[in-house]
Design goal:
Layout (H helix, E strand, L loop, with lengths): L2 H11 L19 E7 L4 E8 L7 E8 L7 H15 L4 E10 L13 H4 L4 E5 L11 H8 L7 H15 L4 H16 L5 H8 L7 H21 L2 H28 L4 H8 L3 H10 L6 H11 L6
Parallel strand pairs: 3-4, 4-5
Antiparallel strand pairs: 1-2, 2-3
Length: about 300
């Protein structure tokens, strides 16, 4: 289960969530932006960096590391990466903080003695999710974090509880993004089940998710227009179905273009030829793509074979 990527997706949607883990968050926590950065010479890739708004002048940069497997050189790497990044960007930031998220203390690096000064510094925060407390008493976002640590026997009931809280505490469209995150966590946790089976387990349907809401709105508008032109109820239903499919294609292409820039006409043609069920899978899979090469590989596997 790729928990680190799930956490970083969650932080992309709700950057201020990181600061709910801290006892002394910055006063402008809501204005921070989540990003991934690269540091050259030598090259380090830091997945979780929270950048203060540039309009406030020099601010505090927060580094975040999500660690669900033991790494006996984790602190060596964190010290090197954060120090070098801060050095390269010294004029932009006045201070730094590090937040390291573990499922439990058992996952932490064994030999921490060489880093005792670093780890005991007020600038370093080690968070153990299993010590956060009762999930029903935690803020919703922290409850979603804790969901990633639960076993298959506990997770479904907790996920349903969090979905109920989502409906009660968050207004659309943010509620749809949170529902997507909870569902995605459960899909990763129950890898032997399809997304539809997971949705059935959680008591929700595709119609409640963000992607469906977007394509439904676009598709209905296109379908109504086509139905009016044909003047037939059958034409209306067919038009809505075709409209939803075309809207899904448009949505996928927009998402890919936003992430990777211009998409070739050849790839657009390949995407446009996919059936609706496969398009829906692509709209989820592309969230994990790192480059257009991932898209090409995915299309080679999932494009239906042509028959004579």
């Amino acid at each position: 289960m790729r928990r680190d990527s799930l956490f970083y997706k969650l932080f992309q949607q709700y950057p201020s969530l990181l600061f709910e883990l801290l006892t002394d968050p910055p006063i402008n926590a809501q204005a921070y932006r989540f990003d991934s950065v690269a540091v050259k010479e030598p090259t380090f890739a830091i997945d979780g960096v929270f950048l203060p708004p540039e309009s406030d002048g020099q601010g505090v940069v927060y580094f975040c590391e999500v660690q669900f497997q033991r790494d006996e050189e984790l602190y060596e790497r964190i010290c090197a990466e954060t120090s070098l990044y801060f050095y390269r960007n010294r004029k932009r930031f006045c201070d730094w903080q590090v937040v390291i998220i573990y499922p439990s203390r058992n996952t932490e690096q064994n030999d921490i003695y060489p880093h005792r000064g670093f780890l005991n510094s007020p600038q370093v925060h080690r968070v153990y999710l299993d010590e956060l407390g009762d999930i029903q008493e935690l803020p919703l976002g922290l409850g979603v974090m804790l969901l990633t640590t639960l076993g298959e026997s506990q997770a479904p009931a907790v996920a349903r509880y969090l979905l109920t809280r989502t409906h009660e505490e968050i207004v659309t469209p943010s509620s749809q993004a949170m529902m997507e995150m909870i569902t995605t966590i459960m899909v990763y946790k129950f890898e032997n089940l399809s997304r539809r089976e997971v949705e059935s387990m959680l008591g929700i349907t595709l119609k409640e998710t963000r992607v469906y809401q977007e394509i439904k709105e676009e598709g209905r508008e296109e379908g109504l227009e086509q139905g009016r032109e044909e003047g037939l109820e059958e034409g209306l239903e067919q038009g809505i179905e075709q409209g939803i499919e075309q809207a899904t294609i448009n949505l996928v292409i927009r998402q890919l273009t936003k992430r990777f820039g211009k998409i070739s006409q050849r790839k657009i043609k390949s995407i446009s030829g996919l059936p609706l069920s496969v398009l829906e899978e692509l709209s989820e899979a592309l969230l994990d793509f790192q480059s257009l090469n991932d898209l090409q590989s995915w299309l080679l596997i999932h494009t239906p074979a042509k028959t004579d």
